[in-house]
Amino acid sequence: MKKRTIIVSGLAATYPLGGVAWDYIQYLHGFYRLGHDVYYLEDTGGWAYDPFNVTFVDDLTYHTKYLGDFLQRLHPGMEKRFCVIGPDERHWGMSAEELAAVVNRADVFFNISTTCQLRDAYAKIPVKVLIDSDPLYTQSSFPSYLAGTATEEEKRNIANMLRHDVFFSFGENVGRDFCAVPKGVIDWLPTRQPIVLESWAGAAPKPGRDAFTTVLSWQPAQKGPLVAGVQYGGKNLEFEKMLDLPQKTEAVLELALGGGKPPRELLEEKGWKLRDGFSMSQTPWVYRDYIWDSLAEFSTAKNAYVATTSGWFSCRTACYLASGRPAVVQDTGYSRFMEVGEGVVAFTSEAEALAGIEAVRADWDRHSAAARTFAARYFDSDMVLAKLLADALA
Q: Alpha-carbon dihedral of residues 298, 304, 309, 313, nearest 10 degrees?
């Protein structure tokens, strides 16, 4: 494919947590490996999260050093390919002049998770791509918009979306008749998280610990979307259905818990092993090591993803798989287009979850090999990003 000048956006500096860094930077790294002239931009217009003090700050010294160190270790030279614009318009990384030169020659702008404000200069880039990483949350106001009852804020948000040219969603079932994510306004093309397989290939053949783990926030700070009279929620709603699971297996089930006010005492009483989520996510490398030390992943998904049959698949889970760590994860409808059963065991009930855990324990070597195969088949960044770019330019 012809070499393109590409800008990708995200939140890797705004939220300096290991999982977030991998979510967005694998786009930069993946396009870079494909030979494109690619740059990373954060321009949210807001302050950045300080995970040590659990607040937001306008001084981005820590955040941009964190990002630069990550990029340099991933691939020397990539640390010169980022720009973070603070709320005071200060440019960190690339200068304002360097960024302007890139924007002026850019062919494609990927606005991932609608994180970047679309300044007039960015709007002049020939192809502007919006990637929805949070299906249903992104489309929740579409019914009221179509009915003419949307709030002014909802109208502004949708107008901002419509300034883009091409639209993709991690909800790969969005638009299909059986999927309850609202249709209309925007036609979404399917896409998924790119995983740079070589970044995850160094895991030991056998994990350091005999534990099913995951890293999660218990409940979003804001209430879930209300769509057509139906109230949807976060991961906690689905996890509550699995509370008794540790009492029904000899497997160690461990949660690295972040925010959302989880019921820690209840979880421990039920047999869940708890770790501090930030400690396991303080850097991208600590996060990766936590995954590598795990036997497998066990996790539910957000209620909004499950109840709508969206087809969303976790970026974090894809990293487990690329590391050769199997996953027993709740089905959001992804089993309709992915071959599951080995490496990835999809469940819709506690009984299926328990059966999946026991199946992985009984033949871990087979499931580990299948996990790597699954990651290569569905998430290899070379394949995912080549298709994404081709579809965006079609």
A: -40
Kindly state the DSSP code that residue 367 receives in the 8-state scheme: H
In angstroms, the Cα distances linking 76 to 71, 73, 80 are: 7, 6, 9
- Position 221 pLDDT exceeds 70: no
Residue 87 gets the label, from left (phi > 0), alpha (psi -120 to 50) or beta, of: alpha
Residues in the chain: 394
Angstrom CA distances, 228 to 140, 307, 389, stand at 9, 13, 34
**160, burial (CB in 10 Å: exposed 0-12, middle 13-18, buried 19+):** middle
Q: What is the spatial order of strands in the sheet that 252-257 belongs to? A: 273-276, 252-257, 211-216, 296-299, 327-330, 344-347
DSSP for 146-185, written as a single string: HHT---HHHHHHHHHHTTSSEEEES-TTTTSTT--S--SS
- Rounded alpha-carbon distances, angstroms, from residue 227 to 156, 237, 391: 18, 17, 30
Burial profile 184-217: b = 16 or more Cβ within 10 angstroms, e = fewer: ebbebbbbbbbbbbebbeebeeebeeebbbbbbb
What b/e readout covers 369-393, taking b as 16+ CB neighbours within 10 angstroms? ebbbebbeebbbbeebbbebbeebe
Q: What is the rounded distance in angstroms from the CA atom of residue 293 to the CA atom of residue 101? A: 43
211 contacts 364 by C-beta, under 8 angstroms: no
Amino acid (1-letter code) at residue 225: P
Q: Using alpha carbons only, what angle is made at residue 107 by residues 159 and 195, rounded to the nearest 5 degrees?
A: 85
pLDDT reported for residue 68:
98
pLDDT beyond 70 at 235: yes
Closest by Cα among 17, 44, 192 to 115: 44
Tokens matching residue 282: 């303080």
Q: Is the pTM of this model over 0.90?
A: yes
Contact 210, 204 (CB under 8 A): no
> SS3 for 45?
coil
pLDDT-based confidence at residue 108 (cuts at 50, 70, 90): very high
For CA atoms 294, 287, 69, 67, the dihedral sign is positive
- Whether residue 359 has pLDDT greater than 90: yes
CA–CA dist 360, 262 (Å, integer): 27
Domains parsed from the chain with CATH numbers: 5-195+380-393 (3.40.50), 197-378 (3.40.50.2000)
